[in-house]
Every structure is written in C-alpha cells, then in structure tokens.
Amino acid sequence: MKYCIVLIMIITLVFASENTNTSIDESKSKIEIENITSDKSRENMQKWLNAEFRLQPYRTNYFLPFAIANRVYQAHSPGEKFKESEAEIQISLKLKMDSSLLGFNEKYYLSYTQHAFWQIYIQSAPFRESIYNPEAFVVFPVSDSESLLHIRSFKVAVAHQSNGQPNTKDNPVYNGFNLSKSINYLYATLRLQHKTLISDITLLTPFFGSANLSDNPDIMKYMGYTKVEFTYFYNEHMFGLMLRGNPASRKGAVEASYSYPLKNAYLYAKVFSGYMESLIDYNHYVTKFAIGLSFSR
Q1: So what's the pLDDT on residue 16?
Q2: What is the pLDDT of residue 93?
Q3: pLDDT above 50: residue 13
Q4: Catalytic residue at 160?
Q5: For residue 196, which phi and psi values (nearest 5 degrees)?
Q6: 3-state DSSP call for residue 95?
Q7: 22 and 67 assigned to the same domain
Q8: Consecutive H or E run containing 13
Q9: 153 and 27: one domain?
Q10: Which of 21-35, 73-87, 239-253 has the lowest mean pLDDT?
C-alpha cells in the first residue's frame, strides 16, 4: 500500500510541476510589492513571487511502471530474489553556470541524473539498483550551413557514474562479488541537424584509469568508446535510436524510444537490447521493453 502512495505522489508532483508557470500560489496571491521603496527588495520579492527555478530538464525524465526483460534479474545480495518485471524512474536536471568565458558564446552547465530500477512486483519492493550520474560540461554552439554535416554544437564533458553500493569483494557472504560499481569518464559530442533529424556522435574515454578499478576492470569492453544517437520528429511524434559499443570487443547496446504528447505529459516507450542496462549487471546481456510516462523530452 505504501508503494502505491509513493507512486501517486510522484505522478501528482510531476503533473503539478507542468503548471507552475501559470498556476497561482494562493499563499502568495495577496502579497503586495508596489509600495516597497527599496528597488532591490522589490526586485527580490518579485523573484520570490515568481518562484523562479533555474533548473532545467537534461535527459528524459520519466516514470515507467511496466518494464519487462527477457530474463529474471540476478539478485547479488543473499536472500534476495528478483523478477524480470519492474519499474524504471529517471530524474535528470541541469543548471547553467556561466557563458562565453572563452569568447565563443559557449555555455557551462552542471547536471545530475539518477536512474532507478524498482522491483515493485515483489513483496518487499526493493530498488534493484540506483545509478547516480553527475556531470560538468560545456557546449559550443556552431552555425554550420555550408558543409554537408550541418553541425549545430560541440560538447565536452566530464562525468561520473556509480551505484553507491559498498565494496563487498572481500566479504565472504557475497562470494567475491563486489556490489560497488563506478566509472569516471570524459566524452565529447558533435551534434548535427538535417531538418527534423538530430544526430549526436559521441566519443568517450575513462578518466584517470577509472575503467581499471577492481570493481569493474573490464567495463569499457561492454560500455564502449563510441555512441551515436538519432532523434527524429514527425509532427507530434518523436522517435529515438541509440547505438553504443566497443568495435574491438563487438559488445554494446541499442535502444529505441518513442514519445507522444498527452495533456500534461508524454506517452513514452523504449526497447533496450545489449550490455550495461544497469551498472550492477553491466556484463549481462538483456533485452527489455518499458512503457509509461515521460515529463520531458
């Protein structure tokens, strides 16, 4: 029952956030600032009344209550048993920090993404894994109308991914398995546009040898050094396709997604097939379908 309440709260809060620019906060509706003599005080009171919020969506924000894989997920902690069906939640936000420090009209950002896999269809309803993904990045806009590439931007980022679990490698209860998984990496993305088709070409590399940590020494074999993402708009429909892999190991992943606008959200569905769907099982191949709602594109 408590998990149903949590789900209702998540959906209610996100739906409410869609209307923050037009709805009136009744607790502030009678506040008057016209007669405030201090310009600074009046200016800051106006910002408070406007409830200005500088955070913006970064990656897709979604809640997918129906997700099913082609195999039962392995539980790595003693006594746990997982199902092949679960829910997925992703929250992703960015904050603009500065711009044009180098004189190229570039924009500097900090971002945070959290991706959670929730086993809501078993009695205790634990989270199978939560992935924490902060980033710092700079985006250089490009106005390329001459070449065939039609380059629109160039992005450089430093990122971290981890599941926040303790190191259990030396704990005999886990039979040598380490729950802790993490990686630091650098990546660069070139964004192209051809009418309603957006293409993102990404190269990434481990940062300071983090791919060789004892908890996941071969992670780049499955994560890969290259990624290509396509986003295509057709009227109200949006289609996505991601291909990621390591040519040397011939391992990677593909993900196809679709979204369609509803009243206050989007219908969102995706199919994933490959490695590194989650950090804890980065070297396990899985094919998975998930459907639900997204609150940004």
Answers
A1: 44
A2: 97
A3: no
A4: yes
A5: -95, 10
A6: strand
A7: no
A8: helix 2-17
A9: no
A10: 21-35
Strand 237-246 to strand 226-234: parallel, antiparallel, or no bridges (unpaired)?
Answer: antiparallel
Does the active-site annotation cover 150?
no
CB 128 within 8 A of CB 104: no
State the Cα–Cα distance between residues 206 and 76, nearest whole angstrom.
Answer: 26
Report d(CA 237, CA 88) in Å as an integer. Answer: 22
Which of 92, 130, 162, 257 is labelled catalytic? Answer: 162
The one catalytic residue among 85, 99, 150, 160 = 160
pTM for this structure?
A: 0.88
Quote the radius of gyration of the chain (alpha carbons, Å). 22
Q: Give the pLDDT confidence of 195-232 residue by residue, as tens digits.
A: 999 999 999 999 876 655 667 889 999 999 999 999 99
Torsion 169-171-172-178 (CA) sign: negative
Q: CB-based burial of residue 230 (10 Å sphere; 0-12 exposed, 13-18 middle, 19+ buried)?
A: middle
Encoded tokens for 246: 């390591």
121/186 same-domain check: yes
Nearest by Cα to 107 from 137, 139, 134: 139
Residue pair 265/297 in contact (Cβ under 8 Å)? The answer is no
C-alpha 140 chain-centroid distance: 21
Contact 20, 51 (CB under 8 A): yes
Residues 32 and 128 in one domain: no
**CATH number of the domain where residue 226 is located:** 2.40.230.10
Q: Distance between CA atoms of 288 and 68, rounded to whole angstroms?
A: 6
Give the number of domains in the chain: 2
Q: Please tell me the total number of residues recorded for the chain in this structure.
A: 297
Distances (CA, A) of 276 to 129, 167, 238: 12, 19, 24
CA dihedral 23, 25, 30, 31 (to 10 degrees): -110
State whether 174 and 31 are in the same domain. Answer: no
Q: Which domain holds residue 16?
A: 1-53
DSSP classification of residue 211: G
Same domain, 210 and 259: yes
